[in-house]
Amino acid sequence: MKTTNLKNIKINLKMLTIIGSVLLLLVTGVSFYLYYQSPKLFSSSGFAMSTYIDQQIYSKNTSVANKVISNAMTTLKSYEDRLSMYTIGSEISKINDNAGVSAVKVSEHTFSLIKRAVGYCEMSGGLFDITIAPVTKAWGVNSDNPRVPSQSELNALKKLINYKDIVLDEAAQTVMLKNKGQAIDLGAVAKGEACNVLRELYKSNGITTALLSIGGNIMVIGEKPNGKDYVIGVRDPRGTQNDAIGTVKLTNTTFSTSGDYERFFEKDGKYYHHIMDPKTAAPAETDLMSVTIISPDGAYADFLSTYLFLLGRDKALKKMDELSVGVIAVDKEYNVYLSESVKPIFSPAKNTRYTYHLTPETKVTD
C-alpha cells in the first residue's frame, strides 16, 4: 500500500509539473500577444509656426506611427507657408501686398479659414479683428526689435483696422482688402485651426489616441490605452513654465490659452504684451492675465481665448454663461473663474495664491 501511494504521489507531482508548465507557457504567450497587440506610445518634438510642436500618439504599427508624425510636421510647415503674414509669397502675404489694388485667389482651406475668422470678428463686434496686422507689425512684440510707436502713428494705424474691408468672393475664391496699407493676421486662429487639421490627419491614419501641443494650443484624441483621460496643466500666468494653477482632464477636444505672459517686452519700466486692442492700436489694457478655452473646434477656441481676454473680467464672466464651451479666466487679483462645464474636470493646485470660483460667484472647494 505504501509503495502504491508513493507511485501515485510521483505521478500526481509529474502531472502538476506538466500542467504548471503548460499554464506558464499559456500565460507567457498571452502576455507576449497582448504586448504586441497593445498600442505603443510614439513621441516627437519639432518646431513650426514659430513655436515648439510636441506629438504623442499611440499605435500598434511603428511604420504607421513614424509616417503620421512625419506627415504632421510636413503639413504644419506647408500650412505655415500659406498662412503666415511673415512668410514671403504666402497666400496671406499676397493678399496684404495687393491691398487696395487687386483680389488674390487662394486655396479652398485658406478662403474657408478667412471666412470663418471674419465671422468671429462679427461675433465680437469688431473687438477681435484680423486686420490688426499693421498694428502687430508696428509694435513688433514677436520680433527681435520691439518698439513703442508714437501716438500719432497709432492714430494712423487705427484707421487701417476694419474687418469689413475684407472682400470675399466665394465663386472666384478670392480675397481682397479695400485699402492700401491694410493687412490680415490670422495668428489668433491659425494654431487652433492647425489642431483641427492634424486631428483629421491622425484619424484618417487610424490614430485613435493622441496628444498634440502647438504652443498654447493643445488637442486630445480619445483616452489613454489604460482608459484614463489626459491630464493637462493650466499654466500659472505669473509663474514659471512648469507652474500650474490646476489641471483639467481632457478627451476629444482642444485647449487654447491666451495670456499677457506669452510674448512681451519692457520699456522704461512698462510691460507691453502681444495681444493688441483694435480700439487703441496698442496692447490690451485688461484686468485679466489669461483665458483658457476648451472646445472641440480649435480655431473657435483660439478666437474665444483672445476675445474674452480683450473683453476684460466683468464682460468675460457674463459672456462665459452664454457660451457652450469650457472657460478658465484668471484675473490680476489672483482669482480663477471656471465655467460650469469645467468644474467637474478641474483640480485646483495646492498651496497657491489663487482663489477659485465657479462663475459667477460660487467658490470652488477641493
UniProtKB/TrEMBL annotation:
<keyword id="KW-0274">FAD</keyword>
<feature type="binding site">
    <location>
        <position position="188"/>
    </location>
    <ligand>
        <name>Mg(2+)</name>
    </ligand>
</feature>
<dbReference type="GO" id="GO:0046872">
    <property type="term" value="F:metal ion binding"/>
</dbReference>
<keyword id="KW-0479">Metal-binding</keyword>
<feature type="transmembrane region" description="Helical">
    <location>
        <begin position="12"/>
        <end position="36"/>
    </location>
</feature>
<protein>
    <recommendedName>
        <fullName>FAD:protein FMN transferase</fullName>
        <ecNumber>2.7.1.180</ecNumber>
    </recommendedName>
</protein>
<dbReference type="InterPro" id="IPR003374">
    <property type="entry name" value="ApbE-like_sf"/>
</dbReference>
<keyword id="KW-0472">Membrane</keyword>
<keyword id="KW-0449">Lipoprotein</keyword>
<keyword id="KW-1133">Transmembrane helix</keyword>
<keyword id="KW-0460">Magnesium</keyword>
<keyword id="KW-0812">Transmembrane</keyword>
<dbReference type="GO" id="GO:0016740">
    <property type="term" value="F:transferase activity"/>
</dbReference>
<comment type="similarity">
    <text>Belongs to the ApbE family.</text>
</comment>
<keyword id="KW-0285">Flavoprotein</keyword>
<keyword id="KW-0808">Transferase</keyword>
<dbReference type="Pfam" id="PF02424">
    <property type="entry name" value="ApbE"/>
</dbReference>
<feature type="binding site">
    <location>
        <position position="306"/>
    </location>
    <ligand>
        <name>Mg(2+)</name>
    </ligand>
</feature>
<feature type="binding site">
    <location>
        <position position="302"/>
    </location>
    <ligand>
        <name>Mg(2+)</name>
    </ligand>
</feature>
<dbReference type="InterPro" id="IPR024932">
    <property type="entry name" value="ApbE"/>
</dbReference>
